[in-house]
Amino acid sequence: MARIDQTPFEVSITDLTHDGRGVARRADGKTVFVAGALPGERVMASQTGRHRSFDEAKTVEVLEAASERVDPRCAHFGVCSGCALQHYDEERQILAKQRVLMENFERIGHVQPERILPPLVDTSWGYRRKGRFSVRRVEKKDKTLVGFRETDPRFVADIRECHTVMPQIASKLPELAALVDGMQARREIPQIEFIAGDVQGGSSGDAFSGVALTIRHLTPLSDADRDALVAFGQAHGFAIFLQPGGLDTVHPLWPQSPKLAFSLPQWNLEFLFRPLDFIQVNAGLNGKMIQLALDLLDPKPDDRVLDLFAGLGNFTLPLARQVREVVGVEGEAGLVRRARENAAHNGIANAQFHAADLAKDLSGEPWMKERFDKLLLDPPRSGADVVLAQLPLKQFDRIVYVSCHPASLARDAGFLVKERGWKLKAAGVMDMFPHTAHVESIALFERA
Question: Which residues form the active site (predicted)?
């Protein structure tokens, strides 16, 4: 393949892609996606990739800036892949995500909601309570890097700060990198996962603060390395977990039995979880999202509700506070165990949980034969097409669909409306990941 000509060229940006890049056309008419450019701008761009139907480029210079352009807060923006939209006014970010959702409804599902819900937003900085840092020892720089991947995913970004990760964690990035760099196993640690429940007390001292780090290591750790990790955890109040192999090998190093938990005070609930469990990344937005989902579902005291892709019971247990009975179904057996434990922990007796792969044949599942009044589902990126095709949908009065991928939501909305006769009554976006191009959304369906 011929080398890419990286000579800067001038283009006018007409649109924004779903992943936050500007859209333009080159002089020959070919579409080009330009990182770091916004609609309405003229920029000088340098080509970074070539494909049959489009090119890729990055902004070299902004010749004519859009009024919505702002100065990125983070010095690493444009190199680190953690954010894609820090240069875009926050109010315009969420409107751009709303447009992505509506375009997906039209283009993929061939449907439109009767009502567009107001965007749901919360704190836009320091919100990320769960994530994964990549780790790489770079001999040429004689240092160990701990951070997110660069926009070129072959490399780890050399970051000193992060404004989207919780400050209790982000402020320790340089010290965390120094810790790993001083370990004998520094070349054998590929990643560090972080998670935070309700942060307690200060970020340092002997007490566990509610933040946990899980160290993935490819070789056994020496006593000196283990001691260094314990000392780091004690100094900053971080629980330290080790992961020498698969998920079942995760175990605490310090303290012996740390309690990881987050609360939903409006429903008088406390959720216990393990360090690699899925929890919603944005705690403030999560509480608002649950309330919105319940408002749309409109649960009645005598209702039986089916909650699919239930996880730890994030929606199931708040629902249990308001209905006669709720049944949660989740594919990961470990999460089902934790959901049951959380129901017992909160004194909830009207919530059942079942483990089932919701992308397979469900005809043998006992809950498929039971009667329900309403359905709530929060599927992964792949959506819920397989399970929706199997469910006896006529039994439900309402369906609330929480989505982390607008294309799969649009596809499933098309199925419900076009093939099953439901109405898409309302839909909207929720800013679970501010400054990124990730689109979280919610939709309400009612029987026609």
Answer: 404
Amino acid at 275: P
Q: Is 206 annotated as a binding residue?
A: no
200 is in an annotated binding site: no
Cβ pair 330, 306 in contact under 8 A: no
What does the chain come to in residues?
448
Residue 357 annotated as lining a ligand binding site:
yes
* Structure confidence by residue, pLDDT tens digits, 275-299: 999 999 999 999 999 999 999 999 9
Render the burial of 247-283: b for 16+ CB within 10 Å, e for the rest: eeebebbbeeebebebebeebebbbbbbbbbebbbbb
- Give the C-alpha distances (Å, rounded to integers) separating 69 from 17, 34, 81, 187, 294: 16, 15, 19, 40, 36
What is the rounded distance in angstroms from the CA atom of residue 356 to the CA atom of residue 376?
16
How far is the C-alpha of 134 from the C-alpha of 190, rounded, in Å?
Answer: 6
pLDDT digits (tens, 9 = 90+) for 173-192: 999 999 999 999 999 999 99
404 classed as catalytic: yes
Neighbours of 145 (CB within 10 A): 20
pTM attached to this predicted model: 0.94
Residue 165 has pLDDT above 80, yes or no: yes
Selected catalytic residue, list 189, 404, 409, 439? 404
CA dihedral 429, 434, 437, 442 (to 10 degrees): -20
What is the pLDDT, as a whole number, of residue 202? 43
Q: In this structure, which amino acid lies at residue 118? A: P
Cβ atoms of 412 and 404 within 8 Å: the answer is no
For the chain, give percent helix, strand, coil, nearest 5. Answer: 25, 30, 45
Question: Phi and psi at residue 417, in whole multiples of 5°?
Answer: -80, -50
**Is 5 assigned to a binding site?**
no
